[in-house]
């Protein structure tokens, strides 16, 4: 059976729904902290297209396409019709597997369709996240005993599937009350209310005067907005007493913060320097970083923040009681008992070597995950974890089932994980947006460190337990309302050793790790060390690890680890990744049914990474049979992995008994196959750039018909060779004409330039796309690099004004066209000189076709579009000017010759 995903995919609908709304996945990711968001629109489309057939009858094809399009209009859109169609197409029962499930975005879509889904991940944090999203919400908890706590009336619903939501509301309220009781002595009230929180800063001793001063990067507290003025502060220092204090002022501060760019002897000092508030001594980045690494940094409370009766945030100096309470918390933390003989209260799990680029605090002296917070913050998490464990025990005494207790405490741990994102020394105070607590992740791949940071207190406001609990409850209300489906099966394991018999699943649909984009385990170890403390009674398996640092295991993690710092034993190399991802794909091939597909969602711009991926697929005994692009990452959700387009690829187990193939014949087949598919792509509205990516599917399908491909000399051919060919075949299939001139009739350099403008106009593109296009054009990158120079962290087609070249008879058409546009501002004579130098005329159809094309394709307000239009309108005049210049040159040459002759006679 040919599956729909091998012939069609709703690329446009996936792209349209991935940024916001039901298809963005924003509600789902609000439940738990994890990485690499997969939009639910893409997950849903990949799942249903992997389970539905692609019939031979065109009318049936169109009917199923319309069903899928209607399904892409909402979370449960076309739910009944889809279930019926999937059941009819899979009479033996449909099943799916995602062995890289992460938070469970892909298995969730199977669960919602009542398709039996299996989810697996190597990270225990991801397993917990996936369980809370794909399994627990779909269980029937109605027969469970009542919680032994006073119910909360807000959002209280005890009937049907909303029992879980009601109990979570009660549970979170109980946790919050106990948390306040456990920590209230360390957070004195102000005006009868608990403060929102406190601004802290790390202090260091000045290397000139010896006095200790705070490192603060910004004095702004609230920017001016409407009728409200700005609020800021500054540090007032008294050198005679060696003391300093923060002074709040109702205006924008005119003083430079103590951590800023400095100028010494007229030269800017690299990085942010720490400037002593007492004597002005400048401590360059390397110096103040060294002081922190040597343990010279100490935390100091700078300001207290309240939220008044009008919900306005106000700032003040901390009271002596507040400072004493923080000191008392430090002493109390030292007395906290361990959670178990092997689990101390304060995390002692070490930060692995080579993690300076992943774990920012390690650059500034942190050695383990207990070093991340001010002591009072650490105490608050220790006691919060103890509360969750105690409640788990009480729920068991009340008769609740172990599985329901695991679910309830798991959601409580989700609150803790989300709160961690707004804690530690990486939680910067942010003045924008009405004053907030910044995320400790600058991107989803690395944890930051900040010299000044915010500690949320017991009151209301961003980063507090109440705020985070309400946020998680809001996500649950959104996800649980009108939910339909069946619970997924979630377990921990490695994709290289799947615990399933052969031919088990109708489809494997997965989003594997992308090379070195995200170090999942290292980046989530902070959550792991606290989650296992929260759940060591109810999820005891979380605490079991063979990692030498006591963190998540990494031996079988399939990534390429970016290392910064000393890491002599780091094993997660490219060889490790390539070997294990091939093993994982081979395992998927084993467990998928003979008529099923392995669907891989993958996004990476670099041709070299694609080469390695294709080799891994080939080594696994899989053949790619479909490839569909969608713009799913435009929000920058991947941080460093900031790709915009991902491919959803269908693969099948390679059939046995395949004959060998010859390169020339295979190339001809690829061109023919793409020419055959092109009319459908055009009819479905695929953009030309998307067709280039879609071409990989049919190209690899053709290659997969053969056991091997050899060239005319009998040498084996790398399958990657055929990807640039496939892209070139799209260009051929499109039969692009440039003002009635076939594109292939132009010289190679001009053909490249016109095709680039046809695809992207003046838009910036990733540098990797330039490499792809160079490969497809069979040109060295150096041969066309001047046409598409660097711009906006990518590349963009050059402007005529910036183009520099000497024009002669050998110049390519595109060079002459750009030179004419550049000369157009100088007048007819300058343009005539260019045309004359090129030895072309106004009858050169290729030159003028290219100029007209560029004038039409570039944006109307683009200076070059205007220049090319000017050139076209003065075409005759340019020709006349060229003739005039030629005549003048000839006359000048004759005069010079005559003068020479006269001189010789003399």
Automatic annotation (TrEMBL):
Species the sequence originates in: Lentzea aerocolonigenes (Lechevalieria aerocolonigenes)
Ranges of biased composition (kind: Basic and acidic residues): 893-906
GO BP of this protein: methylation
Keyword Methyltransferase: yes
Keywords on record: Methyltransferase, Transferase
Tagged with keyword Methyltransferase: yes
Protein name: DNA methyltransferase
Any GO MF annotation of the entry: methyltransferase activity
Disordered, as annotated region: 311-330, 887-906
Domain of life: Bacteria
């Amino acid at each position: 059976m040919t599956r729909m995903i091998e012939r069609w995919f709703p690329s446009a609908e996936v792209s349209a729904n991935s940024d916001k709304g039901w298809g963005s996945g924003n509600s789902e990711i609000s439940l738990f902290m994890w990485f690499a968001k997969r939009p639910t629109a893409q997950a849903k489309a990949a799942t249903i297209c992997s389970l539905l057939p692609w019939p031979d009858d065109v009318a049936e094809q169109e009917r199923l396409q319309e069903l899928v399009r209607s399904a892409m209009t909402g979370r449960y859109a076309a739910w009944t019709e889809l279930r019926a169609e999937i059941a009819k197409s899979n009479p033996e029962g449909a099943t799916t597997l995602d062995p890289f499930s992460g938070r469970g975005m892909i298995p969730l879509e199977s669960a919602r369709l009542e398709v039996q889904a299996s989810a697996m991940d190597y990270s225990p944090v991801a397993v917990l996240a996936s369980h809370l999203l794909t399994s627990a919400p779909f269980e029937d908890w109605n027969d469970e005993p009542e919680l032994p706590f006073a119910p909360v009336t807000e959002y209280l619903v005890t009937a049907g599937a909303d029992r879980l939501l009601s109990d979570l509301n009660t549970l979170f309220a109980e946790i919050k009350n106990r948390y306040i009781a456990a920590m209230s002595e360390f957070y004195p009230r102000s005006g009868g209310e608990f403060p929102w929180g406190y601004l802290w800063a790390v202090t260091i001793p000045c290397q000139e005067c010896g006095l200790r001063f705070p490192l603060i990067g910004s004095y702004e507290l609230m920017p001016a907005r409407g009728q409200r003025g700005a609020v800021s502060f500054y540090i007032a220092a008294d050198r005679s007493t060696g003391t300093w204090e923060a002074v709040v002022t109702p205006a924008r501060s005119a003083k430079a913060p103590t951590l800023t760019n400095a100028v010494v002897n007229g030269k800017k000092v690299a990085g942010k320097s720490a400037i002593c508030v007492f004597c002005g001594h400048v401590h360059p980045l390397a110096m103040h970083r060294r002081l922190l690494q040597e343990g010279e940094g100490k935390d100091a409370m700078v300001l207290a923040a309240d939220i008044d009766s009008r919900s306005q945030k106000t700032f003040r100096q901390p009271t002596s009681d507040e400072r004493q309470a923080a000191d008392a918390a430090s002493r109390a933390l030292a007395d906290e008992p361990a959670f178990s003989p092997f689990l101390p209260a304060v995390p002692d799990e070490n930060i692995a070597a080579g993690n300076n680029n992943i774990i920012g605090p390690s650059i500034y002296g942190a050695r383990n995950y207990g070093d991340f917070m001010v002591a009072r913050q650490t105490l608050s998490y220790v006691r919060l974890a103890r509360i969750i464990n105690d409640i788990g025990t009480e729920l068991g005494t009340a008769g609740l089932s172990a599985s329901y207790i695991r679910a309830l405490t798991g959601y409580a741990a989700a609150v803790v994980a989300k709160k961690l994102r707004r804690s530690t020394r990486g939680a910067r105070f942010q003045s924008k947006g009405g004053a907030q607590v910044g995320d400790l992740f600058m991107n989803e791949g690395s944890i930051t460190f900040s010299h000044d940071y915010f500690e949320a207190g017991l009151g209301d406001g961003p980063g507090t337990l109440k705020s985070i609990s309400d946020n998680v409850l809001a996500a649950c209300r959104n996800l649980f309302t009108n939910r339909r489906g069946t619970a997924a099966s979630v377990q921990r394991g490695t994709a290289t050793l799947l615990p399933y018999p052969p031919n088990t699943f109708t489809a494997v649909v997965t989003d594997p790790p992308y090379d070195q984009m995200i170090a999942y385990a290292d980046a989530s170890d902070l959550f792991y060390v606290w989650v296992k403390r929260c759940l060591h009674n109810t999820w005891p398996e979380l605490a079991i690890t063979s990692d030498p640092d006591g963190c998540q295991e990494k031996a079988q993690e399939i990534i390429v680890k970016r290392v910064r710092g000393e890491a002599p034993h780091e094993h997660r190399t490219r060889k490790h990744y390539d070997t294990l991802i091939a093993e994982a794909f081979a395992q998927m091939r084993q467990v998928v049914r003979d008529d099923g597909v392995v669907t891989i969602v993958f996004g990476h711009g670099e041709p070299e990474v694609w080469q390695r991926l294709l080799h891994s697929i080939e080594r696994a005994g899989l053949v790619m049979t479909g490839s569909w692009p969608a713009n799913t990452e435009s929000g920058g959700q991947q941080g460093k992995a900031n790709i915009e387009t991902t491919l959803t690829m269908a693969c099948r187990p390679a059939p046995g008994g395949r004959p060998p193939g010859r390169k020339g014949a295979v190339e001809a087949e690829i061109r023919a196959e793409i020419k055959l598919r092109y009319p459908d792509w055009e009819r479905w509205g695929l953009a030309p750039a998307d067709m280039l990516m879609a071409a990989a599917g049919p190209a690899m399908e053709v290659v997969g018909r053969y056991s091997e491909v050899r060239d005319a000399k009998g040498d084996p051919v790398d399958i990657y060779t055929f990807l640039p060919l496939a892209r070139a075949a799209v260009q051929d299939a499109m039969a692009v004409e440039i003002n009635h001139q076939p594109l292939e009739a132009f010289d190679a350099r001009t053909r490249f330039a016109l095709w680039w403008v046809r695809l992207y106009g003046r838009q910036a593109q990733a540098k990797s796309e330039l490499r792809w296009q160079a490969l497809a054009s069979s040109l060295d990158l150096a041969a066309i690099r001047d046409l598409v120079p660097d711009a906006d962290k990518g590349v963009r087609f050059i402007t005529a004004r910036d183009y520099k070249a000497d024009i002669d008879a050998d110049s390519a058409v595109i060079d002459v066209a750009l030179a004419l546009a550049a000369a157009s501002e100088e007048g007819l004579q300058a343009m005539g000189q260019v045309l004359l130098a090129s030895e072309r005329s106004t009858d050169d159809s290729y030159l003028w076709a290219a100029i007209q094309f560029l004038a039409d394709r570039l944006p109307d307000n683009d200076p070059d579009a205007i220049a090319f239009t000017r050139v076209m309108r003065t075409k005759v005049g340019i020709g006349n000017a060229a003739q005039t210049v030629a005549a003048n040159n000839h006359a000048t040459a004759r005069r010079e010759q005559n003068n020479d002759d006269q001189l010789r006679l003399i």
